[in-house]
Amino acid sequence: MPQVNMTVNGKPASGDVEGRTLLVEFLRETLDLTGTHVGCDTSQCGACVVHVDGKAVKACTMFAAEADGAEVLTIEGVAAPDGTLDPVQEAFHQHHGLQCGFCTPGMVMSAKALLAENPTPTEAEVRDYLEGNICRCTGYHNIVKAIMAASGQDVSKIAAE
């Protein structure tokens, strides 16, 4: 079996993988980083979003071997080493964007990617960007509110759905 080497959450990581091993499987099963969730196995739900070389990707659509040599950021690497939450995580907490929590890691990772591309998105832009992420608790209103709050915008005028 070939070996893959990558940097995950700022630390070197490696492991033997079969050619068909998905990045999400490598992260969860080899590296024991279980915050990246498997929700649908069809690339529709977004629960497995991670950042590879700074870009948001669904880890269920990428083979681990494709990430060889890459910088990978998972939800476990978002908070500061001392446990201080990232501003997006803090906004999800403050604005109850968590619901059951299953979609939250993917939502946070997608939100971070959106805010890196567009620091002050409109409500419509946030909703459009999250089209590939599914929340089965129908918590989109608070998720959108949290993302806009993380961008520093006033969220008091966001109308309820």
Describe the protein:
InterPro entries: 2Fe-2S-bd (IPR002888), 2Fe-2S-bd_dom_sf (IPR036884), 2Fe-2S_ferredoxin-like_sf (IPR036010), 2Fe-2S_ferredoxin-type (IPR001041), Beta-grasp_dom_sf (IPR012675), Diverse_Oxidoreductases (IPR051452). Keywords: 2Fe-2S, Iron, Iron-sulfur, Metal-binding, Oxidoreductase. This is Carbon-monoxide dehydrogenase small subunit. It holds the Pfam family Fer2. GO terms for molecular function: 2 iron, 2 sulfur cluster binding; metal ion binding; oxidoreductase activity. The chain is of the alpha+beta class and 161 residues long. It folds into 2 domains: 74 residues, Roll (Ubiquitin-like (UB roll)); 64 residues, DNA polymerase, domain 1 (Orthogonal Bundle), CATH 1.10.150. 30% of the residues lie in helices and 14% in strands. It is built from 5 helices and 5 strands, in the order ββαβββαααα. The chain has a 5-stranded mixed beta sheet, with helices on both faces. Strand 1 and strand 2 form a beta hairpin. Helix 2 crosses helix 5.
- Count of helical segments? 5
Output the radius of gyration.
16 Å
Number of structurally distinct domains: 2
- Quick one: CATH superfamily of the largest domain? Beta-grasp domain
What's the β-strand tally? 5
CATH class type of the largest domain: Alpha Beta
Unreliable parts:
none
Main sheet summary:
5 strands, mixed
Q: Which CATH architecture of the largest domain would you pick?
A: Roll
Mean pLDDT: 94
CATH fold-level assignment of the largest domain = Ubiquitin-like (UB roll)
- The secondary-structure class comes to alpha+beta
Helix content: 25-40%
Q: Distance between termini?
A: 50 Å
Q: What form results from the Cα inertia axes?
A: elongated
- The proportion of strand residues reads 5-15%
Q: Strand order, main sheet: write it out.
A: 2-1-5-3-4
N-to-C order of helices and strands = EEHEEEHHHH
GO molecular function: 2 iron, 2 sulfur cluster binding; metal ion binding; oxidoreductase activity
InterPro entries: 2Fe-2S-bd (IPR002888), 2Fe-2S-bd_dom_sf (IPR036884), 2Fe-2S_ferredoxin-like_sf (IPR036010), 2Fe-2S_ferredoxin-type (IPR001041), Beta-grasp_dom_sf (IPR012675), Diverse_Oxidoreductases (IPR051452)
Keywords: 2Fe-2S, Iron, Iron-sulfur, Metal-binding, Oxidoreductase
Protein name: Carbon-monoxide dehydrogenase small subunit
